[in-house]
Amino acid sequence: MSTLLLFLPPRTRLRALGKAASEPARAGTPHEYDWALTTDDQHVHREGRSAAGALPSADTVIAIPAESDVSWRRVELPRTGRQMRAALAGKLEEALLDDPDTLHFAVEPDAVGGDTAWVAITSKPWLAEHLAQLDAAHVFIDRVAPLSWPDELPRGHFFESNGADASGISLRWSHADGVATLPLQGGLTRQFFGPGLVHAAQWTATPGIATSAERWLGTTVTVQTPAQRALGVIGSPWNLRQFDLAPRARGARALRLLSRNLMRKPWQPVRWGLGALIVVQLLGLNLWAWHQKRELAARRDAVSATLTAAFPQVRAILDAPVQMQKQLDLLRAGAGSVGDQDLEALLGAAATAWPADRPPAEALAFEPGRLTVSAQGWSQAQVDNFRSQLQSEGWLLDASEGKLTLSRASAQGRR
Length: 415
Fold this sequence. Notes:
By secondary structure, the protein is α+β, with helices and mostly antiparallel strands. Helices cover 35% and strands 22% of the residues. The strands form four sheets. The protein has a five-stranded mixed beta sheet, with no helix packed on it. A five-stranded mixed beta sheet has the order 11-10-9-12-13. It has a four-stranded antiparallel beta sheet with strand order 14-15-17-16. The longest helix has 43 residues, at 268-310.
C-alpha cells in the first residue's frame, strides 16, 4: 500500500520592515509541491517536486503543512456538539492575533466537550486554497498532518533557519506542554535543556548541520532528511481536516475512500475476518448443496426401486411417478374398475351435484380426466352451488364461455 507525503508550501509572510518577502501567489495560481513516496511506510522510495496535476498516484495522500504555519493552544473544549468550531472561535478570540473567521481549528484526536485538549490553528484560506487546487487536479487528500505535535515523548529537531539567527540553526521542540521553534543564538535556549531532559528526548537533525547540532547539544543526534522525517506523520493520530474542511466524499469517491480505509493496516484483522467468513459461507453453501443433491438422488432411487419392485416388466425408467401411474391405470382397466379419469366417475360426480331445477345437459364433451357440459341458462347462484358441492367431494369446476368443465382436483394439480 503506497503513501504520498505532500509538503504544502509555507505561507507568504511580510518582513518586519513591512516589505514583502516575496510576491504573494494569486488565488488559483498553480503551485508546485515537494513530495515523497513510500510503499511500506518505513522507507522513502521516491521523492521530487511536481505541479498538482503531475503528482504520482498513491493509495493514501497525506498533506503536511510547514511547521511555521501551525500554532497550538491548550483549552477546555466547550460542550457544544456540532457548534464546536464556533464555540472554539469565541473561546480563543482574545488569544488570537487574527480574525477567528480566517483561521482553521483542529481538535486533538478523541477529545470531547469538557476535556482539556490541544487545538491546532492554521490559516483557513491558505489551507482551503491548496485543498481545492489539489482536488481539482484529482489528488484527494486523505489527511492533513503536522510534522510535530504536543506529545508525552519530548522530541527535538534541528534544521537550517536560513540565517534567522547567528548560528543559522533553529530547534523545533515538541513535548507535553506544547510545540515551539527556538533559536540557538546565545545561551538562553541551552539553559532549558538539562542533562536529564537531553537524554530523555529524541533528537534529529537535517543533513549538513548534524555535527553542529551535536556540538551544541552535547550528545548524538539522528540524521533525517525532510522526507525521512515526514514518515513519522503516517502513524500520527492528528488530522487537521476537521469541521468545514473535513472531506466530503460522495459517489465513487466515497467508495474509493472506504476501500482505502479498509486496506489500511489497522483494518487488517477485519479483512482477514471477512475473507474467512466468505470462505466459510461458500464452503457451507457447497456442502449444503451437495447434501441436498444426495437426498434428492436417494429419493429418486427409492421411487425407482418401488417401481421396479411393483412392476418388474418396466425395464427403462425415465419418469418413475408417471410410469407408475400408467401401470396402475393399466391394471385398473384390466380389472374393469372405474378410475377418477374415466367418463363414468365424471358423470357420477356431475349427477350427484346437478341442480334439481336444471334439466339434463343438452351436450357434453369428454377427454381423459375432463368432462365439459353446456351452461346455457345457468344463473350464477346455480353455478356457485354446483361448484361448492363438487369441491366437497374433491372435484374442481371451471366455468367460462357458457361451459362447465369438471376435473379431479388431484389430477388438476398434477397438470
